[in-house]
Amino acid sequence: MRVLAVSGSLRRDSHNTKLLRAAEELAPEGFEFELYEELESVPPYNEDRDGDEAPLGAAHLRARIADADALLIATPEYNSSVPGQLKNAVDWASRPVRAGALWGKPVVVIGASSGMYGAVWAQAELRKILATAGARVVDAEVAVSRAAERFDADGRLVDEEIRDELRAALDSLVAEVEPQLVAA
Amino acid sequence: MSITEAVQAAPAGIWKSDPVHSSVGFSVRHMGVSPFRGGFADFEATLAGDRLVGTARVESISTPDENLTGHLLSPEFFDAERHPELRFESTEIRRDGGEFVVSGGLTLKGQTRPVELRGSVTEPVEDPYGRRRLGLDLETTIDRTDFGIDWNAELPSGGQVLANDVQLTARLELVQDA
Question: Sign of dihedral through CA atoms B124, B20, B75, B151?
Protein backbone atom coordinates (compact mmCIF):
# COMPACT_ATOMS: atom_id res chain seq x y z
CA MET A 1 0.00 0.00 0.00
CA ARG A 2 1.59 3.23 -1.19
CA VAL A 3 1.11 6.15 1.15
CA LEU A 4 2.07 9.68 0.24
CA ALA A 5 2.96 11.60 3.39
CA VAL A 6 2.48 15.35 3.17
CA SER A 7 3.67 17.78 5.80
CA GLY A 8 1.88 21.11 5.85
CA SER A 9 4.93 22.76 7.34
CA LEU A 10 7.84 23.83 5.16
CA ARG A 11 10.18 24.37 8.10
CA ARG A 12 13.33 22.25 8.05
CA ASP A 13 12.89 21.17 11.66
CA SER A 14 9.11 20.76 11.38
CA HIS A 15 7.31 18.80 14.11
CA ASN A 16 4.78 17.69 11.56
CA THR A 17 7.46 16.24 9.30
CA LYS A 18 8.87 14.41 12.32
CA LEU A 19 5.42 13.09 13.06
CA LEU A 20 5.25 11.65 9.55
CA ARG A 21 8.66 10.04 10.06
CA ALA A 22 7.28 8.48 13.23
CA ALA A 23 4.29 7.19 11.26
CA GLU A 24 6.69 5.59 8.80
CA GLU A 25 8.52 3.92 11.67
CA LEU A 26 5.28 2.62 13.23
CA ALA A 27 3.50 1.61 10.05
CA PRO A 28 2.28 -1.96 9.72
CA GLU A 29 3.94 -4.26 7.26
CA GLY A 30 3.18 -3.56 3.64
CA PHE A 31 3.26 0.21 3.95
CA GLU A 32 5.36 1.99 1.39
CA PHE A 33 5.97 5.58 2.49
CA GLU A 34 6.88 8.46 0.27
CA LEU A 35 7.44 11.83 1.89
CA TYR A 36 6.31 14.62 -0.40
CA GLU A 37 8.92 17.35 -0.15
CA GLU A 38 7.95 19.70 -2.97
CA LEU A 39 5.09 21.58 -1.37
CA GLU A 40 6.96 24.86 -1.60
CA SER A 41 7.26 24.58 -5.37
CA VAL A 42 3.50 24.35 -5.97
CA PRO A 43 2.49 27.77 -7.32
CA PRO A 44 -0.60 29.60 -6.13
CA TYR A 45 -3.72 28.18 -7.75
CA ASN A 46 -4.72 30.07 -10.86
CA GLU A 47 -7.50 28.75 -13.04
CA ASP A 48 -5.94 30.49 -16.05
CA ARG A 49 -2.90 28.24 -15.69
CA ASP A 50 -4.89 25.10 -14.94
CA GLY A 51 -5.40 22.92 -17.97
CA ASP A 52 -3.69 20.13 -19.85
CA GLU A 53 -0.37 21.77 -19.13
CA ALA A 54 -0.59 22.75 -15.49
CA PRO A 55 2.53 24.32 -13.95
CA LEU A 56 5.21 21.75 -13.25
CA GLY A 57 4.94 21.94 -9.45
CA ALA A 58 1.19 21.41 -9.57
CA ALA A 59 1.41 18.62 -12.15
CA HIS A 60 3.99 16.85 -10.01
CA LEU A 61 1.81 17.12 -6.93
CA ARG A 62 -1.17 15.70 -8.81
CA ALA A 63 0.88 12.82 -10.18
CA ARG A 64 2.29 11.89 -6.75
CA ILE A 65 -1.20 11.88 -5.24
CA ALA A 66 -2.67 9.93 -8.13
CA ASP A 67 0.04 7.25 -7.78
CA ALA A 68 -0.60 6.77 -4.07
CA ASP A 69 -3.22 4.46 -2.60
CA ALA A 70 -3.72 6.86 0.29
CA LEU A 71 -2.53 10.10 1.83
CA LEU A 72 -1.31 10.89 5.31
CA ILE A 73 -1.27 14.63 5.93
CA ALA A 74 0.22 16.27 9.00
CA THR A 75 -0.77 19.87 9.48
CA PRO A 76 0.37 22.62 11.77
CA GLU A 77 -2.07 25.38 12.69
CA TYR A 78 -1.58 28.92 11.42
CA ASN A 79 -4.03 31.54 12.68
CA SER A 80 -6.46 28.83 13.79
CA SER A 81 -6.49 27.18 10.38
CA VAL A 82 -4.66 25.31 7.63
CA PRO A 83 -1.37 26.80 6.32
CA GLY A 84 -1.88 28.52 2.99
CA GLN A 85 0.49 26.26 1.07
CA LEU A 86 -1.44 23.17 2.18
CA LYS A 87 -4.81 24.65 1.28
CA ASN A 88 -3.31 25.63 -2.06
CA ALA A 89 -2.18 22.05 -2.68
CA VAL A 90 -5.69 20.78 -1.93
CA ASP A 91 -7.07 23.31 -4.41
CA TRP A 92 -4.79 22.09 -7.22
CA ALA A 93 -5.43 18.43 -6.43
CA SER A 94 -9.20 18.92 -6.33
CA ARG A 95 -9.43 19.98 -9.97
CA PRO A 96 -10.92 19.08 -12.38
CA VAL A 97 -14.12 18.42 -10.46
CA ARG A 98 -14.73 14.66 -10.08
CA ALA A 99 -11.51 13.84 -11.89
CA GLY A 100 -8.96 15.46 -9.60
CA ALA A 101 -6.21 13.46 -7.91
CA LEU A 102 -8.01 13.66 -4.57
CA TRP A 103 -11.30 12.26 -5.85
CA GLY A 104 -12.12 9.17 -3.76
CA LYS A 105 -8.61 9.11 -2.26
CA PRO A 106 -8.47 7.82 1.35
CA VAL A 107 -6.82 10.40 3.61
CA VAL A 108 -5.87 10.49 7.26
CA VAL A 109 -5.28 13.91 8.81
CA ILE A 110 -3.03 14.30 11.82
CA GLY A 111 -1.31 17.34 13.27
CA ALA A 112 1.16 18.80 15.69
CA SER A 113 1.52 22.22 17.23
CA SER A 114 3.77 23.76 19.79
CA GLY A 115 0.70 24.97 21.71
CA MET A 116 -1.89 23.27 23.88
CA TYR A 117 -4.28 21.87 21.31
CA GLY A 118 -2.36 19.91 18.72
CA ALA A 119 -3.67 21.78 15.66
CA VAL A 120 -7.19 20.43 16.15
CA TRP A 121 -8.81 23.40 14.42
CA ALA A 122 -6.51 23.15 11.43
CA GLN A 123 -7.15 19.41 11.30
CA ALA A 124 -10.93 19.95 11.36
CA GLU A 125 -10.72 22.52 8.56
CA LEU A 126 -8.42 20.31 6.53
CA ARG A 127 -10.88 17.42 6.85
CA LYS A 128 -13.65 19.75 5.72
CA ILE A 129 -11.87 20.95 2.59
CA LEU A 130 -10.61 17.47 1.70
CA ALA A 131 -14.14 16.09 1.94
CA THR A 132 -15.46 18.87 -0.26
CA ALA A 133 -12.73 18.03 -2.76
CA GLY A 134 -14.13 14.48 -2.88
CA ALA A 135 -11.50 12.70 -0.80
CA ARG A 136 -12.45 9.80 1.47
CA VAL A 137 -11.57 11.28 4.85
CA VAL A 138 -10.84 8.55 7.39
CA ASP A 139 -12.31 8.96 10.85
CA ALA A 140 -9.09 9.19 12.84
CA GLU A 141 -7.23 11.94 14.66
CA VAL A 142 -3.83 12.40 16.22
CA ALA A 143 -3.35 15.77 17.90
CA VAL A 144 0.16 16.35 19.17
CA SER A 145 0.18 19.30 21.56
CA ARG A 146 3.35 20.87 23.01
CA ALA A 147 5.16 19.19 20.15
CA ALA A 148 8.60 20.35 21.22
CA GLU A 149 8.37 18.00 24.22
CA ARG A 150 7.32 14.91 22.25
CA PHE A 151 10.42 14.33 20.16
CA ASP A 152 13.96 13.60 21.30
CA ALA A 153 17.13 15.25 19.99
CA ASP A 154 17.19 12.87 17.03
CA GLY A 155 13.63 13.80 16.07
CA ARG A 156 12.16 10.52 17.28
CA LEU A 157 8.63 10.53 18.71
CA VAL A 158 9.03 9.47 22.33
CA ASP A 159 5.50 9.86 23.69
CA GLU A 160 4.08 6.32 24.00
CA GLU A 161 0.45 7.45 24.06
CA ILE A 162 0.84 9.34 20.80
CA ARG A 163 2.72 6.45 19.25
CA ASP A 164 -0.32 4.27 20.04
CA GLU A 165 -2.69 6.85 18.58
CA LEU A 166 -0.60 6.99 15.45
CA ARG A 167 -0.68 3.20 15.09
CA ALA A 168 -4.47 3.26 15.49
CA ALA A 169 -4.79 5.98 12.84
CA LEU A 170 -2.68 3.95 10.40
CA ASP A 171 -4.80 0.87 11.11
CA SER A 172 -7.90 2.91 10.26
CA LEU A 173 -6.26 3.90 7.01
CA VAL A 174 -5.51 0.27 6.16
CA ALA A 175 -9.12 -0.66 6.90
CA GLU A 176 -10.29 2.04 4.50
CA VAL A 177 -7.88 1.22 1.68
CA GLU A 178 -7.65 -2.56 1.70
CA PRO A 179 -11.17 -3.36 0.45
CA GLN A 180 -10.36 -1.12 -2.53
CA LEU A 181 -7.06 -2.85 -3.20
CA VAL A 182 -8.71 -6.25 -3.02
CA ALA A 183 -11.45 -5.10 -5.40
CA ALA A 184 -8.98 -3.57 -7.86
CA MET B 1 -57.01 3.56 10.24
CA SER B 2 -59.34 3.19 7.31
CA ILE B 3 -60.17 -0.01 5.53
CA THR B 4 -57.11 -1.71 4.10
CA GLU B 5 -57.26 -4.12 1.22
CA ALA B 6 -54.24 -6.32 0.76
CA VAL B 7 -55.66 -8.36 -2.08
CA GLN B 8 -55.24 -7.06 -5.64
CA ALA B 9 -54.11 -3.66 -4.45
CA ALA B 10 -51.96 -3.16 -7.54
CA PRO B 11 -53.12 -3.37 -11.15
CA ALA B 12 -52.52 -6.81 -12.66
CA GLY B 13 -49.74 -7.32 -15.20
CA ILE B 14 -46.20 -6.09 -15.59
CA TRP B 15 -45.63 -2.36 -15.93
CA LYS B 16 -42.39 -0.55 -16.70
CA SER B 17 -41.51 3.12 -16.36
CA ASP B 18 -41.47 5.33 -19.43
CA PRO B 19 -38.28 7.33 -18.74
CA VAL B 20 -39.35 10.36 -20.74
CA HIS B 21 -42.62 10.85 -18.92
CA SER B 22 -41.44 9.90 -15.43
CA SER B 23 -39.22 11.53 -12.88
CA VAL B 24 -37.50 10.64 -9.63
CA GLY B 25 -36.59 13.56 -7.45
CA PHE B 26 -35.67 14.81 -4.02
CA SER B 27 -36.33 17.95 -2.08
CA VAL B 28 -34.48 19.15 1.01
CA ARG B 29 -34.80 22.43 2.88
CA HIS B 30 -31.71 24.59 2.32
CA MET B 31 -30.61 27.30 4.78
CA GLY B 32 -33.94 26.78 6.51
CA VAL B 33 -35.71 28.90 3.92
CA SER B 34 -36.29 27.10 0.65
CA PRO B 35 -36.70 23.57 -0.66
CA PHE B 36 -33.77 22.64 -2.90
CA ARG B 37 -34.84 20.19 -5.58
CA GLY B 38 -32.88 17.76 -7.67
CA GLY B 39 -33.39 14.48 -9.41
CA PHE B 40 -31.91 11.36 -10.92
CA ALA B 41 -32.10 11.22 -14.70
CA ASP B 42 -31.26 7.53 -15.06
CA PHE B 43 -33.74 5.27 -13.29
CA GLU B 44 -36.19 2.50 -13.90
CA ALA B 45 -39.18 1.11 -12.10
CA THR B 46 -41.15 -2.08 -12.56
CA LEU B 47 -44.52 -2.86 -11.07
CA ALA B 48 -45.30 -6.55 -11.34
CA GLY B 49 -48.35 -7.78 -9.52
CA ASP B 50 -47.69 -7.26 -5.87
CA ARG B 51 -44.14 -6.03 -6.24
CA LEU B 52 -42.61 -2.68 -7.07
CA VAL B 53 -38.87 -2.34 -7.69
CA GLY B 54 -37.13 0.90 -8.56
CA THR B 55 -33.47 1.70 -9.10
CA ALA B 56 -31.62 4.92 -9.94
CA ARG B 57 -28.01 5.55 -10.92
CA VAL B 58 -26.57 7.91 -8.34
CA GLU B 59 -24.16 9.29 -10.97
CA SER B 60 -27.13 10.63 -12.89
CA ILE B 61 -27.98 13.14 -10.17
CA SER B 62 -28.73 16.50 -11.69
CA THR B 63 -28.09 19.91 -10.17
CA PRO B 64 -27.44 23.24 -11.89
CA ASP B 65 -23.79 23.37 -10.76
CA GLU B 66 -21.00 20.88 -11.52
CA ASN B 67 -19.21 21.66 -8.25
CA LEU B 68 -22.35 20.87 -6.32
CA THR B 69 -22.89 17.71 -8.36
CA GLY B 70 -19.31 16.70 -7.55
CA HIS B 71 -19.81 17.30 -3.85
CA LEU B 72 -23.04 15.29 -3.85
CA LEU B 73 -21.32 12.34 -5.56
CA SER B 74 -18.33 12.46 -3.19
CA PRO B 75 -17.93 10.22 -0.14
CA GLU B 76 -19.28 13.04 2.02
CA PHE B 77 -22.72 12.64 0.41
CA PHE B 78 -23.80 9.71 -1.80
CA ASP B 79 -20.34 8.15 -2.31
CA ALA B 80 -21.26 7.20 -5.86
CA GLU B 81 -18.00 5.35 -6.45
CA ARG B 82 -18.74 2.73 -3.78
CA HIS B 83 -22.52 2.93 -3.84
CA PRO B 84 -23.53 3.60 -7.43
CA GLU B 85 -27.17 2.62 -7.09
CA LEU B 86 -30.16 3.79 -5.16
CA ARG B 87 -32.72 1.01 -4.83
CA PHE B 88 -36.24 0.47 -3.56
CA GLU B 89 -37.87 -2.93 -3.24
CA SER B 90 -41.38 -3.33 -1.98
CA THR B 91 -42.47 -5.86 0.58
CA GLU B 92 -46.17 -5.00 0.56
CA ILE B 93 -48.56 -3.01 -1.59
CA ARG B 94 -51.94 -2.03 -0.24
CA ARG B 95 -54.69 0.54 -0.47
CA ASP B 96 -55.39 2.65 2.54
CA GLY B 97 -58.63 4.50 1.93
CA GLY B 98 -57.94 6.49 -1.22
CA GLU B 99 -54.18 6.12 -0.97
CA PHE B 100 -51.85 3.68 -2.69
CA VAL B 101 -49.31 2.56 -0.10
CA VAL B 102 -46.08 0.70 -0.83
CA SER B 103 -43.94 -0.53 2.06
CA GLY B 104 -40.44 -1.73 1.43
CA GLY B 105 -36.73 -1.21 1.83
CA LEU B 106 -34.79 1.73 0.49
CA THR B 107 -31.07 1.20 -0.06
CA LEU B 108 -28.96 4.31 -0.19
CA LYS B 109 -25.21 4.58 0.37
CA GLY B 110 -25.14 0.88 1.22
CA GLN B 111 -27.69 1.14 4.03
CA THR B 112 -31.15 -0.39 3.74
CA ARG B 113 -33.95 1.14 5.80
CA PRO B 114 -37.70 0.46 5.82
CA VAL B 115 -39.77 3.17 4.19
CA GLU B 116 -43.42 3.65 3.33
CA LEU B 117 -44.26 5.34 0.04
CA ARG B 118 -47.71 6.88 -0.18
CA GLY B 119 -49.54 8.32 -3.13
CA SER B 120 -51.93 7.39 -5.86
CA VAL B 121 -52.33 5.18 -8.88
CA THR B 122 -54.55 5.89 -11.86
CA GLU B 123 -56.72 3.52 -13.80
CA PRO B 124 -54.91 2.27 -16.93
CA VAL B 125 -55.68 4.01 -20.22
CA GLU B 126 -54.91 2.91 -23.75
CA ASP B 127 -52.41 5.17 -25.56
CA PRO B 128 -52.62 6.03 -29.32
CA TYR B 129 -50.20 3.18 -30.08
CA GLY B 130 -52.29 0.49 -28.52
CA ARG B 131 -50.39 0.11 -25.27
CA ARG B 132 -51.79 0.55 -21.81
CA ARG B 133 -50.40 3.15 -19.43
CA LEU B 134 -51.03 4.13 -15.86
CA GLY B 135 -49.70 6.80 -13.55
CA LEU B 136 -48.10 6.02 -10.21
CA ASP B 137 -47.31 8.95 -7.98
CA LEU B 138 -45.46 8.18 -4.75
CA GLU B 139 -43.55 10.02 -2.10
CA THR B 140 -41.93 9.52 1.25
CA THR B 141 -39.75 11.45 3.65
CA ILE B 142 -36.52 9.98 4.93
CA ASP B 143 -33.98 11.15 7.46
CA ARG B 144 -30.79 11.23 5.37
CA THR B 145 -28.63 10.66 8.48
CA ASP B 146 -30.21 7.18 8.78
CA PHE B 147 -28.28 6.41 5.59
CA GLY B 148 -25.01 7.95 6.74
CA ILE B 149 -25.44 11.16 4.75
CA ASP B 150 -24.52 13.46 7.59
CA TRP B 151 -22.95 16.53 6.02
CA ASN B 152 -23.98 19.84 7.46
CA ALA B 153 -22.72 23.29 8.36
CA GLU B 154 -23.77 25.88 10.91
CA LEU B 155 -25.64 29.02 9.92
CA PRO B 156 -24.23 32.22 11.45
CA SER B 157 -27.54 32.88 13.18
CA GLY B 158 -27.81 29.31 14.49
CA GLY B 159 -29.35 26.28 12.87
CA GLN B 160 -28.03 24.16 10.06
CA VAL B 161 -27.55 24.71 6.34
CA LEU B 162 -29.23 21.49 5.28
CA ALA B 163 -32.26 19.78 6.79
CA ASN B 164 -32.03 16.10 7.68
CA ASP B 165 -35.49 15.32 6.32
CA VAL B 166 -35.49 14.72 2.58
CA GLN B 167 -38.63 14.23 0.56
CA LEU B 168 -38.31 11.66 -2.19
CA THR B 169 -40.77 11.60 -5.07
CA ALA B 170 -41.42 9.19 -7.91
CA ARG B 171 -43.82 10.45 -10.58
CA LEU B 172 -44.04 7.44 -12.81
CA GLU B 173 -45.80 6.80 -16.07
CA LEU B 174 -45.80 3.04 -16.44
CA VAL B 175 -46.35 1.15 -19.68
CA GLN B 176 -47.69 -2.37 -19.69
CA ASP B 177 -45.21 -4.92 -20.94
CA ALA B 178 -46.46 -6.44 -24.16
Answer: negative
Domain B4-176 -> CATH class: mainly beta
If you measure CA to CA, which chain B residue comes closest to A179? Answer: B82
Domain boundaries, chain B: 4-176
| 8 A C-beta contact, residue A122 and residue A82 | yes
pLDDT beyond 60 at B7: no
Distance CA B72, CA B148 (A): 13
Q: Do the beta carbons of residue B118 and residue B136 sit within 8 Å?
A: no
CATH number at residue A117: 3.40.50.360
How confident is residue B2, by pLDDT bands cut at 50, 70 and 90?
very low
Q: What is the CA radius of gyration of chain B?
A: 17
Dihedral sign computed on CA atoms, order A72, A76, A82, A85: negative
Best mutation site among A102, A105, A136, A182 for testing chain B: the one with the most B CBs within 10 Å? A136
Q: By a Cβ cutoff of 8 Å, what residues of chain B touch chain A?
A: 66-67, 69-71, 73-76, 81, 151
Nearest to B75 among A97, A98, A104 (CB): A104
Q: How confident is the model at residue A182 (pLDDT cuts 50, 70, 90)?
A: low
Residues of A in contact with B66 (CB under 8 A): 97-98
Taking CB atoms and an 8 Å cutoff, what residues of chain A touch B71? 132, 134
Q: What is the ipTM of this complex?
A: 0.76
- pLDDT, one tens digit per residue, over B40-49 is 999 999 999 8
Q: What is the pLDDT of residues B57-81, one digit of tens each?
A: 999 998 888 899 999 999 999 999 9
The total number of structural domains in chain A stands at 1
